[in-house]
Amino acid sequence: MPNHPTIYIGDDTLAELIGYCQTRDLRSFVLVADRNTHAVLGGRVEQALANQGWDVLTALLQGEEVVADARSVMQVMYALDRAPRTFLAVGSGTITDIARFVSHRAGREFISLPTAPSVDGYTSIGAPMVLDGAKITVYCHAPLGVFADLPTLCAAPRVMIAAGFGDMLAKLTSVADWELGALVWDEPFDPEIARRSRDAAWACAHSIDAIAAAEPAGVRALIEGLIESGLCILDFGETRPASGAEHHMSHLWEMKLLREGRPAVLHGAKVGIGVVLSLQRFDAVRRMSRGEAETRLARSRLPDREAEIRGIGRAFVGMADQLAEVQKPFLDMTEAEHIALKDRVLAHWDDIERISAGLPSAAEMTGWLRKVGGPVAGREVGLSDEEIALGVRWGHYYRNRFTVAKLSQMLGMP
User: Fold this and answer.
1) pLDDT tens-digit profile of 58-106?
2) d(CA 83, CA 73)
């Protein structure tokens, strides 16, 4: 497994950061932040480093809404010189992704200083970037360290804390999807990493009262869970431990909002809505008998490749050819392969019911998200019923993974 970054969560973040840099002889930096994150933490980091006599450049990202796209990358590149510098990502998920991407391409390391417990990307290797309106995860590198200032995290906007909770509870459905893929789609699987990811999610669920109140103990539990989720991605080498059908829906909605120039919605907020929708499907599977599943599978027909590609093109504008290639194993199945897949689903029906039974219900998840102040329906974040339906029907085509979405399609479920 790859080396894990140094992790610090507490009240003495600046002193810990200075000590870490002294130990590793780091003296030159480029600090990446936006106006908000610079105000809440970046300015103090900048001053602390300057007090040591160290060389600090600051790349202050401009605009009301920072996106991990070519514009933001160029802003950081413009602030750089040719000196070998360690990047400091002061912000939440988007700023971390920008710093991760640019530092990797520049051949430099980076350190993460989160300003909100809102995403699990702080310790992962993936940087979700927007290229020509498409969301693409670029695999880069993990940070040298994560220094999480607990008072700053507790003071984060409640909507960002709720988004982090939504992103964490998504690990329950993403691990369930991962197990499905391993059973019937021959996807690579690591039971220990799956256990870690699931345990981190349940630990946050059990801390819901303290998280909802933004108490230090609750926020610590949340950021610890988010960091652990990122480490699971790091150790496995891809996002399966932390991203399933709920994330695929979120990516579809995000790209649609970007294409149409509409206000962004926090990643974890969209993912939380996706979790509820995924759990509705798992609820239906849990209630379904083997006999009903057998009847439904017997009626299931091979996907109409051309019709599906047309649907993909409507849902993921401009990506039909790319995703058709990604989905060749599913869209190009022969009749014999389709029958074999149905047989595998039925042969593993007891396991599929076990996986479904180990999840909270959609109603329970809805209650948890409401308690922390997170959205549970599309209209709460400006997504129409039609757009939600688009994600439910077509989101699974974003990745070649067998999730509850593909299972539902085979079973003829809405």
Assistant:
1) 999 998 889 999 999 999 999 999 999 999 999 999 999 999 999 999 9
2) 18
**pLDDT tens column, 181-202:** 999 999 999 999 999 999 999 9
Please give the single-letter amino acid code of residue 397: Y
* 258 neighbors 67 (Cβ within 8 angstroms): yes
Give the amino acid at 359.
L
pLDDT score of 385 more than 70: yes
Sign, CA torsion 345/350/353/357: negative
Cα first-last separation, the chain: 40
Residues with Cβ within 8 Å of 95's Cβ and at least 6 positions away in sequence, in order, are 32, 33, 34, 37, 61, 66, 89
Average pLDDT over residues 143-157: 98
Six token digits for residue 345: 């689903």
The DSSP annotation for 170-189 comes to HHHHHHHHHHHHHHHS----
Pick the CATH number of 6-156 from 3.40.50.1970, 3.40.50.1820, 3.90.105.10, 3.20.20.70: 3.40.50.1970
The Cα 403–Cα 316 span in angstroms is 18
CATH of domain 159-411: 1.20.1090.10
